[in-house]
Amino acid sequence: MFSERNLFLQWLRKRRPRDKQGLYLVGDKLYGMSTEVIKEVMERGWIPVIKVEESLHRGIRDKLRKIALKSYTIHQEIYKKRCLIESFFGTTKRMFGSYLEERTEKMAFNVVFTQLALWNIGNILFILFITLKYRNNFQTVSRRGLTLKLSAIK
To answer: Is 145 left (phi over 0), alpha (psi -120 to 50) or beta?
Structure first.
């Protein structure tokens, strides 16, 4: 059975290493329990901002987990912005569902990208429609000062 951490490792290993050094990987406690994830991230030159917790009876023994803990304490301001990413994904899942039936990763990306693009186009058209329909109800500025259109009051 695959966990989120194993799926992430598979995805990370499929990717070719690129020259993007200094990127941050922000993760929760699940990623902090795995030394494999921290090792892969550090080999790519990324900075792990992963919450690592000590257990009750034993502290953090592994060197990689100690490095991740030190990086987490230094970059806590970045970790606090994780809620923005989580809320974006939560909103997207509520709008379009949390499950895709696509077989390939590329097709799944295209479906999600198209859904978000159509959502944004719909929002723009809605705002445009509202402003065109009610444009006479907005305030206008005259030479003598601010005047209200009477059609807005009716």
So the answer is: left
Helix (H) or strand (E) holding 2: none
Three-point CA angle 6, 77, 86, nearest 5°: 45
Backbone angles phi, psi at 48, to 5 degrees: -80, 120
Query: Which pLDDT value is given to residue 124?
Result: 93
Give the gyration radius of the chain's Cα atoms: 24
Question: Which H, E and C letters describe 46-75, residue by residue?
Answer: CEEEECCCCCCCCCCCCHHHHHHHHHHHHC
Residue-wise pLDDT for 77-94, tens only, equals 888 888 888 888 888 788
More confident residue, 74 or 4: 74
3-state secondary structure of 145: strand
